[in-house]
Request: fold
Amino acid sequence: KLGALLVLWIGLILLTFFKGGKGVDSIVGITCESPWYGILIAIQFLWTLGFAVVFAIKLMKDTEEKKSVGYPFHPQDVLWDASKTRFYAFFTLVAGIVAGLIGIGGGMVLGPLMLVMGIHPRVSTATTATMIVLTSSSVAVLFVTAGLVPWQYAVCFFCVCFSGALVGKT
Reply:
């Protein structure tokens, strides 16, 4: 699972470098006016959607396999079926749109949604933290490559944030 997450992240980073953004020019010379810019945005969307579909199918198959062998589910386990998967996928899409439009983190929408769905709070927290790592690290890579990072501040803030996150999560 971590390997697949790494492949997703690397793919998104590469596509972002191809199209440029956040102070970084495209490595292949694409501008916002180019039709390739829109195509690369669509490819980013399809890349992410492809991973979501593959893992949704895997979740549903795993749930069915566990049911067939009498797996002792935890009361807060989500028994994934097509309707729950569609419900969650719809709200994650809405959360992404809202996050992009008004600049909030998608976790502000998805964290409470997962709790409403009955997902264990630890799983909800870990999922939103993973989303934050993906988005934050992607933007960080872009800013570093654009030369927009004052390293004295970055190292200090990294240490403080890492320590605070480690203590907070523990």
